[in-house]
Specification:
Blueprint (H helix, E strand, L loop, with lengths): L1 E5 L6 H12 L2 E4 H10 L3 H11 L6 H12 L8 E4 L5 H13 L6 E6 L2 H9 L1 E4 L5 E3 L19 E2 L6 H15 L2 H7 L3 E5 L4 H13 L5
Parallel strand pairs: 1-3, 1-4, 2-3, 4-8
Antiparallel strand pairs: 5-6, 5-7
Helix pairs in contact: 1-9, 2-3, 4-5, 6-7
Length: about 220
């Protein structure tokens, strides 16, 4: 199955994509993670990406579509995959449709994670992750069980994203409302948009997602 997680920054896409990926054996494709890797690699492209990301703006469609097109060729994706953070603009959604058409594949479901802006700001500013295994945590909502030790891998080093600041939150939410929200009617019109209440707790959201996905007919 090809699954899209659609929601504003901080909605819980990464958290849930990881769980669904494990639970349903789907490969997770996170454009945010891929872009951060490009930055780490220190290439001129990475430098351009860093400037856009740090300003809370979307990275250009051309760059992101190119990255996704490459990834979809990987054999990891053959058994189905989850798109976490892509598409984020109508141009990206249309490019994805064209790529899938070429492969005679189609999107199984688009899960819309509904969370209000006030909650998003809290989630973003309290977010951190394990430097070793990349699993996400939150100061208040999802601290490690044992302080400073990763539940998953036992790692003791954690990182915070440079763009997870109160200043960028405003720009990122604006970008979401202006550029990404138009995808909701786009997918609703295709009958594949499945809303879930993203304000609920992490386990509850996973449960809702599994419930709506179990009802999706696959072929
Ligand atoms: P996204 O990938 O959509 O930006 P994340 O999955 O990184 O979102 O989640 C943002 C932050 O909120 C993280 O710190 C995560 O631990 C926390 N979080 C995720 N889902 C929930 C939830 N349902 N309730 C409370 N906090 C959550
Ligand atoms: P979040 O969901 O919290 O915004 P992501 O890791 O998905 O976190 O994205 C971080 C940043 O990476 C975005 O603010 C944007 O600059 C860039 N980015 C990620 N995915 C895309 C995309 N599909 N199109 C354009 N920019 C993207
Ligand atoms: Zn870890």
């Amino acid at each position: 199955m090809i699954l899209i997680l659609l929601g504003p920054p901080g909605a819980g896409k990464g958290t849930q994509a990881r769980r669904l990926s494990e639970g349903r054996n789907l490969f997770q494709l996170s454009t945010g993670d891929m872009l951060r890797q490009a930055i780490k690699a220190g290439t001129p492209l990475g430098e351009k990406v860093r400037r856009q990301m740090d300003a809370g703006q979307l990275v250009s469609d051309e760059i992101v579509i190119g990255i996704i097109a490459d990834c979809m060729e990987s054999k990891d994706c053959l058994g189905g995959f989850i798109l976490d953070g892509f598409p984020r603009t109508l141009a990206q959604a249309e490019a994805l449709d064209r790529m899938l058409e070429e492969k005679s594949c189609r999107i199984g479901a688009v899960i819309e994670m509904q969370v209000n802006d006030e909650e998003l700001a809290k989630r973003i500013t309290g977010r951190f992750s394990c430097a070793e295994c990349n699993i996400g945590y939150h100061d208040q909502f999802r601290p490690p069980k044992q302080e400073s030790v990763c539940d998953e891998c036992g790692g003791t080093e954690f990182v915070r994203r440079e763009d997870d600041t109160e200043e960028t939150v405003v720009a990122r939410l604006k970008a979401y409302h202006e550029q990404t929200e138009p995808l909701l009617p786009y997918y609703r019109a295709q009958g594949i948009l499945l809303p879930v209440d993203g304000m609920a707790g992490i386990d509850d959201v996973t449960r809702q997602m599994n419930e709506v996905l179990d009802a999706v007919k696959t072929d």
